[in-house]
Amino acid sequence: xxxxxxxxxxxxxxxLLSEEERAVRxxxxxxxxxxxxxxxxxxxxxxEFPEAxxxxxxxxxxxxxxxxxxxxxxxxxxxxxxxxxxxxxxxDSGVRSFASVQGALVMYPxxxxxxxxxxxHWLPRLASGEDVGCFGLxxxxxxxxxxxxxxxxxxxxxxxVLNGTKMWITNGSRxxxxxxWAKTGDITDASSVRGFIVPTxxxxxxxxDQKGKLxxxxxxxxxxxxxxxxxxxxxxxxxxxxxxxxxxCLTQARYGIAWGGIGAAxxxxxxxxxxxxxxxxxxxxxxxxxxxxxxxxxxLTEITKAQFMTLQLGRLxxxxxxxxxxxxxxxxxxxxxxxxxxxxxxxxxxxxxILAEYGAMRHMAxxxxxxxxxxxxxxxxxxxxxxxxxxxxx
Amino acid sequence: xxxAVCLKRVADTTTKIVxxxxxxxxxxxxxxxxxxxxxxxxxxxxxxxxxAAGSGETVVYSLGGDSxxxxxxxxxxxxxxxxxxxxxxxxxxxxxxxxxxxxxxxDQGFDLILFGKLAVDDYNxxxxxxxxxxxxxxxxxxxxxxxxxxxxxEAERELEGGMETSTCQLPAVLTCDKGLNTPRLPSLKGxxxxxxxxxxxxxxxxxxxxxxxxxxxxxxxxSAGKIVGEGPDAVPxxxxxxxxxxxxx
Lengths: 394, 249
Fold this sequence. Notes:
Chain A is of the alpha+beta class. Chain A has helices at 19-46, 53-60, 78-91, 93-113, 116-127, 243-278, 290-319, 324-348, 360-372, 377-389, and strands spanning 133-136, 152-155, 159-170, 177-183, 193-199, 205-209, 221-232, 280-281, 284-285.
């Protein structure tokens, strides 16, 4: 019998969701319980992405779910999209990362910056999981400062030649197509950054998994090497213009991560609560001790605050008024909150908390990556500082 | 192939039930409602039979208040073509529900009418067979396996310690058991498509019926177990307690 997760909803947030938003959430929730939870601990220990789940996720419509139906996508609003990310990360941050990259970092830029031909060709294939994508922006020496990237794209008579190295690329070794960001002009000119759709079987393109990860172990993270990779003129995303186009993709992904953080935190809270109620020490459940109650009260409070903030963020996104600064605040808060919940849950579980049989330590280790990627916690602090003061400290 | 599925909205089996102030109903505050899990086997069977036939229509019927529209839309999201809400309050008397359904289903040209074998909220097993009787149709209950071909149904039912195989001509009424299939999850596209599928609302009046629910009680809380000792030394005390306290030997 599958354990069924029934959510964390102290303030009846469900009543603020539409019927279809709840239905979407429930489909993903049930799928995670039935298909992801039984395999995730093993995949994590082996350091393998559970790839058998990809066709199932595609069939149910998890990829690019907020993109239009004409491309084979579900055409959901952004709150429903966020709830998908929440539920996937309730299972595992690595699996949520897979879906985030596919939807927000590969399908979104093709939809936003691509030609009609590019959209018609790639979006249905990515929605159906026939193609898997990755997003090549970060480089070994350019993480928080992507404007400095040194990958180049040089125009030739019939196309472009790409050279450079990309690092920390989720799905990199698994992808059949990469969105590669490169400078088409002077290496100091961030406005010359353009996006390219690069099939990964193009000669000169190679990917190497980054070994020894102690976090996001059920997800592939790779280095991409581009050596004289020749692509046709049609590979250029025609409407991409400057590094800001790449940053727009990150805003999409960070929006999903803000929801994902809530999911990971809910998983940890739920596990901690159930453990505390059943674990007997000194002849009573540890849930009856003040220290553990304080832990649970703190977790529930932070989850509840994050839920309402993030729901409103989604409503703003659906209204078209959401700003990247608002996304920074939610990503920064929610991921940090989730990391704290995971750590406290792991401690509440005592020695059992270090076992893969429980989720807390897996989430705790995963969230260190999520804390660091898609704009580190510190960078989001500085982005907010800039938004508040108008002064740039980075 | 025209197939009807009769669907009931029930409290989720994982919901913590609170008895209402009248002592004879459940307090619905904060309770999550879902399609009756046995009816989900019927929904899946209907979709699968239609897919195998290559054409046809599937229609879901539910009797209840407006909130049952959400339950109907879950069936539409899974792939049922259209829905009919028979708007009215339910009845503890299965025969009254069966009369309302039979009145609606007759002369509609259905080849198959599918039910779950029981509803998890009342465990009555009644409405499917009663509807069949009122419609004058053959009925096979608690299906574990079914094949529909050449105008007839071949069904297998799990009995205590064995299987029974039976057959009947279409049109027929079938009630579905766990194990018949694995109901699909509503896909995200299915959820969006469900909003555009027809959902007709018709008022129905149920008769007074002959059954009244007098009271509901939760099962008593299980008390904690007792460890009487370890090894052979504990046996006399165990026998004593089984004989004199639990009174089972």
